[in-house]
Amino acid sequence: MKEGDLLPPIHPGEMLREEFMVPMGLTSYALAKAMNVPRTRVERLVREETGISPEMALRLGHVFSTTPELWMNLQSRYELIVARRAAGHALDGLPVLIAAE
Cα 78 to chain center, whole Å? Predict the structure, then answer.
């Protein structure tokens, strides 16, 4: 079993919503205003309809005093888990060209 096989992947928008916005009582409008982006951009992210771009990661890192890498890593991890599940067994027959030590 690989990482992410048991639980549903956590979308970065869920993390933003549940770990930052809800505890701070932030609305999408208030966060968008603080980041100087359209409200709809934040709304689509917290509804898990879009992902986090590098520019959004920079803005989120700044307003929440985190690193942009935190946000990009959340996005990357989510995308890899989704892709791994979509690939299913398609990777099983591929050769390993360099063996891990």
Answer: 6
Q: What is the pTM of this model?
A: 0.84
Question: Which tens digit of pLDDT belongs to each residue from 32-79?
Answer: 999 999 999 999 999 999 999 999 999 999 999 999 999 999 999 999
The domain covering 12-87 belongs, at the CATH homologous superfamily level, to lambda repressor-like DNA-binding domains (1.10.260.40)
Rounded to whole angstroms, how far apart are CA atoms 19 and 74?
13
Distance CA 63, CA 9 (A): 25
Whether 71 and 12 have beta carbons less than 8 Å apart is answered as yes
DSSP states of 53-83 as a string? Answer: -HHHHHHHHHHTTS-HHHHHHHHHHHHHHHH
